[in-house]
Write a structure and sequence with these properties.
The complex is a heterodimer of chains A (about 150) and B (about 140).
Chain A lengths: L1 E5 L4 H9 L3 E3 L1 H9 L14 H5 L10 H16 L2 E5 L12 H13 L4 E4 L5 H17 L7
Parallel strand pairs in A: 1-2, 1-3, 3-4
Helix pairs in contact in A: 4-5
Chain B lengths: L2 E8 L6 H11 L4 E4 L3 E7 H11 L7 E6 L21 H8 L2 H13 L14 H13 L1
Antiparallel strand pairs in B: 1-3, 1-4, 2-3
The chains are: A alpha/beta (about 150), B alpha+beta (about 140).
Chain lengths: ~150, ~140
C-alpha cells in the first residue's frame, strides 16, 4: 500500500514503512522528478512559476504562492495516499525550514481523505521509541499485505 | 529506465560507511556510489538499487536506515561545494532524526524479540476546579 508520511522527508518514517513492506510516499520522489532533466529552470528544486498554478487545485488564489508551490509537491502524494503516518508537531517543521500554513493544509487534506491514519509524537526516550516503532509496525500490519516496490 | 538515488544513514557500532562502500563495490552492480560523513549514497536503476541496498542492510539491520533522495550525488545545484557551504536542504531533518536513531534501533530489536511495550500513561489536563482551588490558596497567602 502507498503510505503518506509526515514530515514528508522523514528518514525514520520512510525507512520503517519500507521495512514493513509498504511503499512510502515521500517528497523526495516528487523532487527527483523535477530535477532529473539536464537543465533546470529554477534551481535547486526547480519550482517554476507553473507550480503555484498547479497548487491552485489545493488552495485558493489568495493563498501565498509559497503554500501553493509547496502543495504542487505535496498534493500529488496526498492524492495517491492509501494510508498515512503523521508525526504531530515535528520540531523541524517550525521556522524557515517549514511552512505552518502548508503543514496545516497537508494535515487537513490527509484527514479529509478518510484513509487510515496513525498519529504519533517523536520519541524522546527508549521506552517511547519502542512504543513508536511498535505502533507503526502494528498499523502497517493492519493495512494488510504490503505491495513491495 | 527509472533512475533513483538512495541514502543509507549509518548509525552503528559495528559498521562504518567505508565497510558499506567496500561491500557495495564487491557487488559489482551498475550503480554510482558516494561515501559521505553520515553514510553512503547510491544512485542507479530502481530495481538494482533496491535489491543491492536490502542486501547491504543485512550487515547491521538495526544500524542502517535508508531513504530515497531527490538529487543525485554531486548534483551541482545542491552540492555545498558549489553553493559555498551552508546546510543543504534536508539537512535539518536528517540532523534531528539522526539523534533518535539508536532509540529507534532499540525499538526494532524489541519488535524482533516479540516484546510488547507498555502503553504510556497519558497526562491528565488540570481540572478547572483544581485550578480554582490553587488560585484561591495563592490569593489568601
Amino acid at each position: 500500500m502507498k503510505v503518506f508520511i509526515y514530515p514528508t522527508n522523514s528518514l525514520i518514517l520512510s525507512d520503517l514503512v519500507e521495512r514493513f513492506g509498504h511503499e512510502p510516499l515521500a517528497v523526495m520522489q516528487e523532487i527527483s522528478k523535477r530535477v532529473s532533466n539536464p537543465g533546470l529552470d529554477s534551481p535547486p528544486m526547480n519550482i517554476t512559476p507553473e507550480d503555484p498554478k498547479i497548487g491552485l487545485k489545493y488552495a485558493a488564489v489568495e493563498v501565498p504562492s509559497g503554500v501553493r508551490g509547496r502543495m504542487a509537491l505535496n498534493g500529488p502524494l496526498i492524492s495517491k495516499a492509501e494510508a498515512a503516518i503523521i508525526v504531530r508537531d515535528p520540531v523541524v517543521s517550525f521556522g524557515c525550514m517549514g511552512c505552518a500554513r502548508t503543514n496545516e493544509l497537508v494535515n487537513f487534506l490527509i484527514r479529509a481523505k478518510k484513509i487510515p491514519i496513525l498519529d504519533l509524537d517523536y520519541p524522546s526516550s527508549e521506552e517511547e521509541a519502542k512504543e513508536f516503532v511498535f505502533k507503526i509496525s502494528q498499523f502497517l500490519k493492519s493495512l494488510g499485505q504490503g505491495e513491495k516496490k | 529506465m527509472d533512475n533513483i538515488t538512495k541514502m543509507m544513514v549509518i548509525n552503528s557500532s559495528k559498521v562504518l560507511p567505508s565497510d558499506v562502500v567496500i561491500k557495495l563495490y564487491e557487488s559489482n552492480a551498475d550503480v554510482m556510489i558516494k561515501e559521505t560523513c553520515f553514510g553512503v549514497m547510491v544512485s542507479g536503476e530502481r530495481a538494482v538499487v533496491d535489491k543491492l541496498l536490502s542486501e547491504t542492510r543485512k550487515m547491521d539491520p538495526y544500524g542502517i536506515f535508508i531513504k530515497e533522495r531527490g538529487f543525485a550525488p554531486g548534483e551541482p545545484n545542491r552540492c555545498r561545494a558549489t553553493r559555498r557551504g551552508g546546510a543543504r536542504p534536508g539537512f535539518h531533518v536528517l540532523e534531528t532524526e539522526e539523534r533518535i536513531l539508536p532509540q529507534i534501533a532499540e525499538g526494532l530489536r524489541a519488535i524482533d524479540k516479540g516484546e510488547i511495550p507498555r502503553q504510556k500513561m497519558k497526562k491528565k489536563k488540570l481540572e478547572l476546579e483544581k485550578l480554582k482551588e490553587i488560585i484561591e490558596k495563592a490569593e489568601v497567602s
